[in-house]
Design a protein that fits this description.
heterodimer; A: 410 residues; 2 domains; 13 strands; 50% helix; B: 434 residues; alpha+beta; 15% strand
Chain lengths: 410, 434
């Protein structure tokens, strides 16, 4: 179709056209970036944890008063939990994946290094690996004889008896690759602080570290140390089959309360729900972004419908004349469709430039990565489709104008 | 004349109901979204202690070791026990308080209430007068109680309501951590937002229920919450935090004049130099002295998601406005014939301009009212969100006014261009075209 007459007509509505192009450009730019932001959030929420998420429940308690026999009580509690039917493993753990905060230490491959290579979190707790369901890909699990009580470890630290501290550790694949790229990490040593060294005895595939602020800076930088905990130092983590979780959690809380009523349940639940809570802000933000995206597209679509309807009724007579002179309904329909395509294309081209600008702004102010090029055509195609869908109604109405209109006066 | 124009405007708007509804809806959605996000931003970035915050300062020192030192690094956000105690006892400010937070098991005397964990603040005495904390009953404690590790407690109004039905509970006993404490004060309504004095418990965290002298809390080994940053070989043993190389305390000082601020900064530098000379500090002198607002700004307490939402909503408003301008322009231009006749009959350009502007003003006003309703709905939706600041999202008088100013300004802006364009029509040309 010849686009010259269309351009000629559009030149008579320069200002209106400019406004429509501007609106499409803004919409395109914002929608591109918003879709990118949504995909970022979704990617964040899909991070692998490396643990048996669907098989874990937890109980966190606070204790009133001193317990001189804490160790014995912890052992009794754990024995009671392990005796519940369906329970595969149970432990007292210092921190859980998907906690809001996390405990981290600087890690060096040489104590003389000025800057640490990375910062990693450390999990404590007897049979933590078995309970969490972490997969060991190289080396071995920690042995029971390697474990030291946390209180004893503190005492050893205070007395500067570093050689008696535990020295075996498990680390994640990601941490090993960062510490010793391309080398076998088994048997290698790393340092926490100046005088505390650990020897890597095993490597696990994945193990996410807790902390909302750690997801973007090495989400998998975690280690497991052979340190066991007593009651107040940890939370109970219990592994069982997915369908047993509710029952096991209920029985576990009852048993724990029966063994020692002088404690308060601070928090309990399943790991699945703990993960959902951890990402609730991201989910809410993704929802808001999606809402804004849809609202923008709707407003722009309605704007196109409104303007096109106006133009159709304004050109009623000239459409009639064209029909009388032999233009088919299809010609009229195509005329309006092409007109919209031209305007949308102009808007999209300007929108691409704007989208790039907005992305630069976000990179500077919100530390976002550069938007992959694939998002640009996504925005363009979305707006082309939107424009064509919006203009279809008014264009069909225009095509339905009978030629006889030409003979009537306004 | 104005009422006549008003009538004309309404008639013209009625002629194209769909289009009018579209324009009003577009403006309303833009304003609703912008005002929702701007209100949240306004609430979150407010001054926690209006009138007081300018004279409150937060000193920072850098006691960490050399290995990980890089020039220009910021000092840690908290103080160690040794430094905090030194600054507290030096009494170089008008008032000063050393504090931290945690959770304390509370066993109510009433058997009807289960024991629970109370949110606690461990602080020295000046906390209450320095932050102008209002008291419903009784008072805070003094230096003597700090020195004597006294078993005294100040409780919040909410806890007083829960345990004592809101009655004067001063003199009664409260059992914390298996120890009897004497209640000496009940706070009034006090919720500065953000929770500026300790951002490590969450910037919009739940407020403390009990306030206990810091010395007492350490004596009884009360649980410490919040962040602990250690260096060297210190592992952050909770029970012996005093002797560990860790920062875990917040310190605030009241300084009433610029001269005293400068003097205090000098004092911090001298202290750092002395500590360097004695070998306890190894890094070059690195001190900061920030006021409340500077401290909040430095810590970027306003969530970046909230700022992003505000930008997004403003972008949305721009699209809605451009949309309305386009529609209004098309509408006005379509009435070129009518306007031409009126011009030919003697109406001046200015009158026509005024009339058209009035028409767009009516659309803007309607859009503004609807936008306000949408903003209230939006804030209600924000309050249903899980974030810890969500419940603070309420509209105040200032934001209400701002909404109206924004909507009227937006719609006038949207009406200006079409009205200006429409009154530049040459009357003769339009009449000829008829």
């Amino acid at each position: 179709m010849d686009i010259r007459p269309i351009l000629f007509t559009l030149r008579r509505h320069k200002l209106t056209c400019c406004l429509l192009v501007l609106q499409i450009a803004f919409t395109c730019a914002i929608v591109c970036n918003t879709i990118f932001l949504i995909s970022q959030r979704l990617e964040r929420m899909r991070v692998p944890s490396g643990i048996a998420e669907r098989e874990l429940v937890y109980v966190q308690m606070a204790y009133i008063g001193k317990r001189p026999d804490e160790k014995a009580r912890a052992a009794a509690d754990l024995a009671a939990l392990r005796s519940i039917s369906g329970v595969k493993a149970a432990t007292l753990i210092n921190e859980m994946p998907f906690d809001y905060g996390s405990d981290n230490s600087d890690v060096r491959t040489d104590p003389a290094q000025r800057m640490p290579v990375l910062s990693a979190s450390q999990y404590f707790g007897e049979s933590a690996v078995k309970t969490l369901g972490v997969q060991i890909v190289e080396g071995r699990d920690l042995r029971p004889e390697e474990y030291v009580d946390l209180s004893d470890a503190f005492a050893l630290l205070a007395a500067k008896q570093y050689d008696k501290l535990p020295s075996a550790a498990l680390i994640t694949r990601a941490m090993a690759d960062r510490l010793w790229p391309g080398q076998n990490p088994l048997g290698k040593q790393y340092y926490v602080g100046k005088s505390i060294s650990f020897t890597v005895v095993g490597v696990v595939a994945n193990l996410i570290r807790p902390g909302r602020d750690r997801l973007d800076v090495g989400a998998q930088y975690s280690s497991v140390w052979p340190i066991s905990l007593t009651l107040a130092q940890g939370a109970f983590l219990i592994r069982c089959a997915p369908q047993d979780r509710d029952r096991v959690l209920r029985v576990a809380v009852d048993k724990l309360k029966a063994l020692d009523p002088n404690r308060i349940v601070l928090d309990k639940g399943t790991m699945e729900q703990h993960r959902r809570d951890f990402f609730q802000n991201d989910r809410a933000m993704a929802g808001i972004l999606l809402g804004v995206c849809l609202a923008l597209l709707i407003v722009t679509a309605l704007g196109i419908v409104g303007l096109a309807s106006f133009w159709v009724s304004q050109r009623n007579r000239s459409i009639g004349v064209r029909r009388a002179l032999g233009a088919t309904r299809g010609n009229i329909l195509h005329y309006f469709q092409t007109e919209n395509f031209l305007l949308t294309t102009m808007g999209v081209v300007l929108g691409m430039v704007l989208a790039y600008g907005i992305n630069l702004f976000l990179i500077v102010h919100y530390e976002l990565p550069r938007m992959p090029a694939v998002y640009f055509p996504v925005g363009a195609i979305l707006l082309w489709c939107l424009g064509q869908a919006a203009v279809l109604g008014p264009a069909l109405r225009a095509a339905a104008v009978p030629p006889v209109v030409a003979t009537r006066s306004v | 004349m104005l009422s006549y124009y008003f009538g004309l405007a309404l008639r013209s708007l009625k002629r194209n109901r769909m289009l009018t509804a579209l324009m009003i809806l577009a403006i309303a959605m833009g304003i609703g979204a912008s005002m929702t996000t701007l209100t949240v931003l306004h609430v979150l970035s407010g001054d926690p202690l209006p009138g007081r915050s300018a004279s409150l300062y937060y000193p920072q020192l850098d006691p960490r070791d050399m290995p990980s030192y890089t020039p220009g690094v910021e000092p840690p956000g908290q103080l160690s026990w040794i430094d905090g105690m030194y600054l507290l006892h030096a009494k170089r400010g008008t008032r000063q308080a050393l504090m931290t937070g945690g959770m304390v098991p509370l066993q109510p005397e009433q058997s009807s209430i289960d024991p629970f964990h109370a949110n606690a603040r461990y602080t020295s005495a000046d906390f209450f007068p320095m932050f102008s904390v209002p008291f419903q009953y009784g008072n805070g404690w003094g230096d003597a109680e700090d020195e004597g590790k006294a078993r005294v407690v100040v409780i919040s109004a909410a806890l007083n309501d829960k345990l004592f039905g809101g009655e004067n509970s001063v003199g009664k006993t409260l059992r914390l951590q298996e120890t009897d404490f004497r209640i000496i004060g009940v706070l009034g309504d006090w919720r500065p937002n953000p929770h500026f004095y300790d951002l490590y418990m969450g910037a919009y965290a739940d407020y403390e229920q009990v306030y206990v002298p810091l010395s007492t809390s350490r004596d009884l080994h009360m649980d410490h919450g919040g962040s602990v940053d250690c260096w060297g070989d210190s592992a952050g043993d909770q029970v012996h935090l005093e002797r560990e190389n860790c920062t875990w305390l917040q310190f605030w000082v009241e300084l009433d004049s610029p001269a005293s601020v400068a003097a205090y900064k000098q004092f911090l530098e001298h202290y750092s130099q002395d500590q360097r000379a004695s070998g306890r500090f190894t890094r070059p002198v690195n001190v900061r002295l920030r006021s409340v607002m500077q401290w909040l700004d430095y810590n970027q307490v306003v969530p970046s998601d909230t700022r992003l939402q505000a930008w997004l909503a403003l972008g949305f408003l721009v699209v809605c406005l451009v949309n309305t301008v386009g529609l209004m322009l098309a509408k006005f231009m379509r009435r070129a014939g009518e306007l031409g006749v009126r011009r030919a009959l003697g109406a001046s350009r200015r009158t026509l301009f005024g009339q058209l502007l009035l028409e767009s003003g009516v659309v803007g006003f309607a859009g503004g009212v609807l936008g306000l309703l949408l903003a209230l709905l939006g804030l209600w939706l924000v309050r249903q969100q899980p974030s810890d600041y969500a419940k603070l999202a309420h509209m105040d008088a200032a934001m209400l006014l701002a909404t109206f100013v924004l909507s009227v300004a937006a719609s006038t802006l949207a009406g200006l261009l079409p009205a200006w364009r429409a009154c530049r029509i040459a009357p003769a040309l339009q009449l000829k075209a008829q």
